[in-house]
Amino acid sequence: MKPSLVAIVTVLIASLGCRSVANTSDAKSQILRLDAEWSQAAQSRDVDRVLSFWSDDATVFPPGRPAVVGKPAIREFVLESFRTPGFGISWKTNDVVVSRSGDLAYGTGTNRVIFTGSDGKQVTVEGKAVAVWRRDPEGDWKCIIDIWNDISSFSR
Amino acid sequence: MKPSLVAIVTVLIASLGCRSVANTSDAKSQILRLDAEWSQAAQSRDVDRVLSFWSDDATVFPPGRPAVVGKPAIREFVLESFRTPGFGISWKTNDVVVSRSGDLAYGTGTNRVIFTGSDGKQVTVEGKAVAVWRRDPEGDWKCIIDIWNDISSFSR
């Protein structure tokens, strides 16, 4: 029996829809896994690995200073952070939402930065964060927008 | 002449693709226009209008305090801000990127908050901001994630 055009088109559209939903769910798990690996790399101070999670055209918006645009500037920013006495950072993304087309997503979570204060004591700054992720042509998710701020009042 | 199945499916897929690109460009203009109207409403201190640009389940991440989740809490946050002596806010979104499916987008820009300092003088805080927008089932774009921080060091 020859399948009707309507049936074929219906199956085509349905399969596009299903693939989209499956991709969205896969993408969410993938980004959560990447994000955990990224935080781990930052805790290990592995600069090249830390940088690999941002896209080349990413922008980082750190509190208390202008935006940091593009990989070379972000590398400087990361190196400078790692040079801060007593510096440490960790974060956790709690939720990820992916666009239906599976090309754009955002994650929200919390972070913690520690460093040595001017009195020699450890300072801990708790923050909240938003990251926007983009799927690149190779199919890899990269962070393109990275912004956070402090949960309570803190003078930088 | 009866059109071939391949031709019909090709046209179908191509038209889906074209619509997606057109939607993306429309969505970008729409969000930029909404954002300008939103800043205008904030400058006019029109609370209900200001609130209408966020989705009911939006989260606002203001610097120096915990996240503000959902419309009732955001209303309180807006009212509290408007009560701050000498308070004023304006912002401008410079860029918007929309997902291929036209359901999710993000914007980046700058903002400026003014208020009266403890010494009675006007304080101006320049910031940078990221907003995530979602197209709701009625086709309207609403801000679901709203985060910003200061461009230079500032103690709240």
Structure description:
- 2 copies of one chain form a homodimer.
- Chain A has 156 residues and is an alpha+beta fold.
- The first copy, chain A, has a single domain, classed as Nuclear Transport Factor 2, Chain: A (Roll), CATH 3.10.450.
- Chain A has helices at 5-43, 47-51, 71-83; strands spanning 54-61, 68-69, 88-98, 104-116, 122-135, 141-150.
- In chain A, a hairpin with a 6-residue loop joins strand 1 and strand 2.
- The model of chain A is unreliable at 14-19 (pLDDT under 50).
- The interface between A and B is large, with 37 and 37 residues.
Secondary structure elements and their pairing?
2 copies of one chain form a homodimer.
Chain A: H1 5-43, H2 47-51, E1 54-61, E2 68-69, H3 71-83, E3 88-98, E4 104-116, E5 122-135, E6 141-150
Parallel strand pairs in A: 1-6
Antiparallel strand pairs in A: 1-2, 3-4, 4-5, 5-6
Keywords:
homodimer; 156 residues; alpha+beta; Nuclear Transport Factor 2, Chain: A; six-stranded mixed beta sheet; 6 strands; 37% helix; elongated
Strand order of the largest sheet of chain A: 2-1-6-5-4-3
Sequence of secondary-structure elements of chain A: HHEEHEEEE
Structural class of chain A: alpha+beta
What proportion of the residues of chain A is helical, as a percent range?
25-40%
Query: How would you sum up the global shape of chain A?
Result: elongated
Number of domains of chain A: 1
| Quaternary class | homodimer
Put simply, the count of helices of chain A is: 3
The low-confidence parts of chain A are 14-19
Rg of chain A, rounded, reads 20 Å
State the distance separating the first and last CA atoms of chain A.
73 Å
CATH fold-level assignment of chain A: Nuclear Transport Factor 2, Chain: A
Mean pLDDT of chain A: 89
Please report the first level of CATH classification, the CATH class of chain A.
Alpha Beta
Biggest sheet details of chain A: 6 strands, mixed
Most extensive protein-chain contact, per-chain counts: A-B, 37 and 37 residues
